[in-house]
Design brief:
The protein is of the alpha+beta class and 72 residues long. It has a single domain, classed as P-loop containing nucleotide triphosphate hydrolases (Rossmann fold, 3-Layer(aba) Sandwich), CATH 3.40.50. Helices cover 36% and strands 24% of the residues. The protein contains 3 helices and 4 strands. A two-stranded parallel sheet has the order 1-2. Strands 3-4 form a two-stranded antiparallel ribbon. The radius of gyration is 13 Å and the shape is globular. The termini are far apart.
Length: 72
């Protein structure tokens, strides 16, 4: 429901904090597919995740450890 509310006004930039954190694997895949479609629609998506699988779907990954940017 939170994703639907975030998309209702068709924002250019979408901020997503752990969008798949509490989801089962099948629903996670559907959300990742939705995010890919939004990206193809020229939307900017900034997301925070602890999941390597989710991070692997991103064009750019910034890793933060103990409050410090450790990889780009």
């Amino acid at each position: 429901m939170a994703i639907a509310r975030a998309l209702i006004k068709q924002p250019t930039v979408l901020l997503a904090d752990e969008p798949t954190g509490a989801l089962d694997e099948q629903t996670e895949q559907k959300i990742l597919e939705l995010l890919q479609r939004l990206k193809q629609d020229n939307r900017i998506i900034v997301l925070a995740t602890h999941s390597r699988d989710v991070a692997n779907c991103c064009d750019r990954v910034l890793r933060i450890s103990e409050g410090v940017l450790v990889s780009n």
